[in-house]
Description:
This protein is an all-alpha fold. The protein has a single domain (40-328), classed as ABC transporter involved in vitamin B12 uptake, BtuC, CATH 1.10.3470. The protein contains 13 helices and two strands; from the N terminus they run ααααααββααααααα. The chain has helices at 3-36, 41-54, 58-81, 89-107, 111-140, 144-162, 204-222, 224-234, 236-241, 246-271, 289-299, 307-324, 333-365, and strands spanning 194-197, 200-203. It has a two-stranded antiparallel sheet with strand order 1-2. It is globular and about 75 Å long.
Amino acid sequence: MTTTARRLGPRISEWLMFYVLSIMVALLLSAILVEATGGDWRPVMNALLDGSLRKPGRWGETLGTAAPMLLVALGTIVSGKAGLINIGQEGQLLVGAAFATYFSFLIGGPGPLNVVLLLIFGAIGGALWAGVAALLKFWRNVPEVLSTLLLVTVGGQLVAYGLSQSWILLAPLADRGNRNQVSEQLADNNRLPHLEIFGNQIPLAVVISIVLAVIVGLVLSRTVWGFRLRMLGRNPRAAQRSGVAQTTYGASALMISGAFAGLAGAAMLAGGGFAFGNYQLVPGFSANIGWAGLLVALVAREKALVAIPVAFIFAGLRTGSSFVGATGVESKITEVIQGFLVLALLIPPAVMFLRDRRRARAVATGTV
């Protein structure tokens, strides 16, 4: 065994112990919360498992829900590596879905070609919307954390206006109720195909998102562009002195982040079947997937491959919550459980970081 392996062994064990302990505490707090609200934690946990995994067809739906979360998380990871905080994924996803809807019906064409164009224009829409924040950041020095957040509201209002105008997004009266502001429904041959596995319908978006996660992980860790992006995020001044253009790399990272969110919106539109509008754009279409994807990236600590299982866990809580109501407990309780799990996964690295910094400071001052 090498010296490096001997050093890493105890540290990995310590990390695992921290994580296991934190998750156990989170589950214990969740059980106490369920009991305090008049429920029984055992049926609630069984309902979560039934709704997300055990019942027929449920793990396929969980995978379908995880796909857009993972896509949003990948974009968040790219911008985060550049040191930029993009929290406008909800708006970028919605604008991307609107672009996909508009251009899908405008261009038309054969089914497979239309699906590809739908996904491309969804990514373009999200990139352009994030590009507004990039322009404000690098032209007027407006913090991206502020502009991306505010653009969520603006994007939501613009899409709502589009859904009120028949020349933009609103479906003809014959295709909707008198008061329903929805787009036309995608034709059967303009939808992403589904894979049938053990009775579960799994949209092709699941495969696309996993492949993109592998690609993003490789690009960020094994390419010159990824190295420069990480350099910019860790030390902008040193990166600029090394020839890394902050405006070029920063703006491209922010727009790529928006492109992934827009692609997630397009995949939700074309994948359908997972409470995402039934193959049409509707009010509230984004369904908080943008915020969930942001949390996935945060919990995964900006690691593309780690985001895959994290997205599945978050999706499982979401799909399982529909079964919790049958236990007599409010289904919103799953959001609190999700919050506990997020804290459980974030506390160990924070504790380890503070401890390592304290030790380093003690060594520097000669107190140990």
